Amino acid sequence: MSLKVGDIITFERTFTVRDAELFTEISGDKGNHHITPDEQGRLVIQGLLTATLPTKVGGDHHVMARTMNFEFLRPVFTGDTIICEVEIEKYERQENNRTVIIAFFLCKNQNEKEVLKGDFSGIIL
Question: Could you tell me the pTM of the whole model?
């Protein structure tokens, strides 16, 4: 799939207890809210695990990231389904045979509440 300015890529993911456990193991982020369920039996998903959602676009399109900016707006819990929209702001071939990409993203939970927004830039070799 070739990207162009204005394209919007949408995908979603439902976070599980196992996701939080694996990320805790890998990252070492063992805050109580990530390992102890709340009164509803949910864990808080680590912010950087939530932030992997927009990076999926980079992975799918072989982007070598240069910058990533995240604004965490509200917590994400196990069982939440997060819908991520990534909009391509710039997609331009350079003289050095590389393609520059800049994109903005907004992630909302199943209740349409914004949980994460930001942008990233990079190059595609």
Answer: 0.91
